[in-house]
Amino acid sequence: MDSGLRKLSILAKLRRNTRITATQIQQALQDEGDNISLRTVQRDLIELAGRFSEVCSDDSKPIGWYINNSSPISLLNLDLTTSITFAMADHHLAGLLPPTMHDRLKPFFLTAKHYLKHTTNNVERLWPKKIAVHGKGMPLHPSQISEHVINTIYTAVLTEKCVKLTYSSLTTGKTNNFMFHPCGIVVRGERSYLLGKYDGYDDIRTLYFSRIVDAEASITPAIIDQNFSVNTFIDNGGMGVIRNVSKLEIKLWITETLKLILEETPLSHDQKFEPLDGYFSVIATVDDSDELRHWILSMCNHATVMEPMSLRAEIKATLLDSISYYE
Predict the structure, then answer these.
(1) Residue 137 pLDDT
(2) Contact assessment for residue 313 and residue 305, using Cβ atoms and an 8 Å cutoff
(3) Are the C-beta atoms of residues 41 and 26 closer than 8 Å to each other?
(4) CATH topology of domain 3-67
(5) Which of 163, 201, 213 is nearest to 185 (CA)?
(6) 299 near 251, Cβ under 8 Å?
(7) Distance CA 304, CA 267 (A)
(8) Could you tell me which CATH number the domain at 147-235 has?
(9) What's residue 295's pLDDT?
(10) Are 287 and 249 in contact (CB under 8 A)?
(11) How large is the average pLDDT for residues 29-45?
């Protein structure tokens, strides 16, 4: 076991004003699969106490070790549940945490994985291998973005500072340089977006991460509306997801196969089915969104829009355009 990980594991076993002996720590390490000598544990404890004033010992025999109750530090309580949580957090939160934050957590991630690897007497340790989050749809590979750009952007958002960006236009391929006031980040599958305002403008814009060629930190405070909420921005259609904030009542002709699927995973809480010429219709109140249209198009062999007529005409026009590319 790496000495750094071993010391972190020992440190994690110390509690506030609750004594534990070197022998008890050695036994706990052995239970986790690490055959460390008592002398090594004792040396590590002495070294930790020399480096961290919060690590204390008493005058008992055998010596008891603990964390001072007034200590401001908070240490990882390493056990099976905590280790599983950290292992899964490392996998699923890597794209949501600023790289600097993720780096600070690496010792915990490594220790948690080491704990799970060497805990052989509990089947729960295999949980991360028994559950997976699998995205729906065609999997796309994330864009390759430089670590410098990512770090600069996340730091600017965290510190609420402006950032100087070099941005490439999707249509012309030309690059523009400008000062940007960042206020949030949205991660949508493989794509990440920076939210904020162009210097001198008041409307919120979205910039696609992969088109940011370069980013330079600035000490200029970003002008941010303190009432701004990323979730509210998304709910109001800021990401192009919602077409209208009002709900939309739709009526679809559907096959029996789709009816069975919708019975298990409804379109809405007020969803209703009716027999229709040997098939079925479904009526539901849904968000007027891009995702609704993508779903209808993906189900074109199993669903046809009956109402509203405006949506029916839109879907029909899209399908006719698509067919034209095959002719």
Answers:
(1) 77
(2) no
(3) yes
(4) Arc Repressor Mutant, subunit A (1.10.10)
(5) 163
(6) no
(7) 15
(8) 2.30.30
(9) 94
(10) no
(11) 86
- Map out the domains of the chain as residue ranges: 3-67, 80-129, 147-235, 242-324
Structure confidence by residue, pLDDT tens digits, 163-222: 999 999 888 889 999 999 999 999 888 889 999 999 999 999 999 999 999 999 999 999
- Nearest CA among 148, 44, 39, 129 for reference residue 91: 129
Q: Are 235 and 244 in contact (CB under 8 A)?
A: no
Mean pLDDT of the chain: 87
Between the alpha carbon of residue 94 and those of residues 46, 59, 103, 303, the distances in Å are: 35, 44, 10, 38
Length of the chain, please?
327
Q: Would you call 154 exposed, middle or buried from its count of C-beta atoms within 10 A (0-12, 13-18, 19+)?
A: buried
CA distance 181 to 223: 6
* DSSP per position, 9-60: HHHHT-BBTB-EEHHHHHHHHHHTT----HHHHHHHHHHHHHH-TTEEE-SS
Q: Are strands 279-289 and 205-208 parallel, antiparallel or unpaired?
A: unpaired
Q: Is the pLDDT of residue 315 over 90?
A: yes
Under 8 Å between Cβ of 60 and 95: no
Q: Which of 36-50, 53-67, 90-104 has the lowest mean pLDDT?
A: 90-104
Q: How far apart are the first and last CA of the chain?
A: 64
Question: What does the angle CA 266 – CA 309 – CA 251 come to, to the nearest 5 degrees?
Answer: 20
pLDDT in tens, 229-287: 999 998 888 887 777 778 999 999 999 999 999 999 999 999 999 999 889 999 999 99
